[in-house]
């Protein structure tokens, strides 16, 4: 993508990506959100630590991430176990978010659903090898 095309994408609001985390401990969700905040701009406050839900049911933690700027370099982050991340946004924005997460985690594509202008991608985040 050229700089002009990238700027056009950004001007259309296509740089916003919805991220949902499931299947993990609150500590791991916090680790992922902290990494995202280091890489990009997120709508989650730095002190907004995910908590274990009360009662039965699975927890889903969410954030909106702005990927209009290239990701900052980030050191690998440590998880206690794998984390499932569901990413929704334009093709360009989802790819940029995936690439940024690659600085902090081993990122595996689990599946995706494509639409006309955007996609939903399920990612599996794990610890990078030392």
What Rg is obtained from the alpha carbons, in whole angstroms?
14 Å
Q: Low-confidence segments, ≥5 residues, pLDDT <50?
A: 7-12
Whole-number total of structural domains: 1
Give the total of beta strands.
Answer: 6
Summing up helix and strand content along with how strands pair, one would put the structural category as: alpha+beta
Proportion of residues in extended strands? 25-35%
Summarize model confidence as the mean pLDDT. Answer: 86
Helix and strand run: HEHEEEHEE
Largest sheet: 6 strands, antiparallel
Helix content: 25-40%
The total count of helices amounts to 3
In words, what does this structure look like?
The structure is a single chain. The chain starts with a helix and ends with a strand. Strands 2-3-1-4-6-5 form a six-stranded antiparallel sheet, with helices on one face. The longest helix has 14 residues, at 26-39. The model is unreliable at 7-12 (pLDDT under 50). The chain is of the alpha+beta class. It has one domain. The protein has helices at 3-11, 26-39, 91-104; strands at 16-22, 41-42, 61-66, 83-90, 106-114, 118-126.
